[in-house]
Amino acid sequence: MSPTPEPAAEPDAADAPEAPEILRPRRRPAQRRSRERYARILASAREVLVDVGFESFTFDEVARRAGVPIGTLYQFFANKYVLICELDRVDSAAVVEELDRFATHIPALEWPEFLSEFIDHIADLWAADVSRRAVWLAVQSTPATRATAADTERPLIEAICGVLAPLIPSADDRVRRFVAGLLVHTTFSLLNFSVQQGAPAMGEEHYELTVQEVKRMLISYLMTVAEAR
């Protein structure tokens, strides 16, 4: 069986183009009232994003729905790209939290069962909250949002690397990160496909079939990786 392809070597730093800026809020609230207001802003931003799409997304509408002055948004976010990236950070943190919880079951479960249960859980999150798909699509919009999304997903990649360590113990960290990134992006891309608005004809059947194929593909891939190592 052919070995798993090695990830491409990193380019020399002197030859690499300047990295895009990582987009972060100007500040995050510390006091309870500010945190509540911040949460309202994020919730309203999700609503606006789902209702009108990223191109028509405006601070004016977010502020109106959140019931705050528009200046309050600018206290936290320089522009809509920063706000969208903050939504992505919240979504990614929730996935990491769930992965950590599921990882505690690894000694009691065979890893295919673990992966199947975890994919089911993440797929249910995407199906139940359509804003996750909207956020995931929005952060693909510019080099800076893509770079920020990549920075945001690092804790998720590291968490998956920890899960992969017993499966491919001979692989170095660079290979495990490559495999983890492949798993993350494949799963999210196919979950996006499973809930896309263009497939209403099959509805629930489309969703279930896609999730089952995600499981089949990823479990087969990881079995191949484990055997090759």
Automatic annotation (TrEMBL):
DNA-binding region: 58-77
Disordered, as annotated region: 1-31
One Pfam entry name: TetR_C_22
UniProt xrefs under PROSITE patterns: HTH_TETR_2
Keyword Transcription: yes
Biased segments, Low complexity type: 10-20
Assigned keywords, A-Z: DNA-binding, Transcription, Transcription regulation
Keyword DNA-binding assigned: yes
GO terms, molecular function: DNA-binding transcription factor activity; transcription cis-regulatory region binding
Domain HTH tetR-type: 35-95
InterPro entries reported for this sequence: Homeodomain-like_sf, HTH-type_TetR-like_transc_reg, HTH_TetR, TetR_C_22
PANTHER family membership: HTH-TYPE TRANSCRIPTIONAL REGULATOR BETI, HTH-TYPE TRANSCRIPTIONAL REGULATOR RUTR
UniProt name for this protein: TetR family transcriptional regulator
Organism: Corynebacterium sphenisci DSM 44792
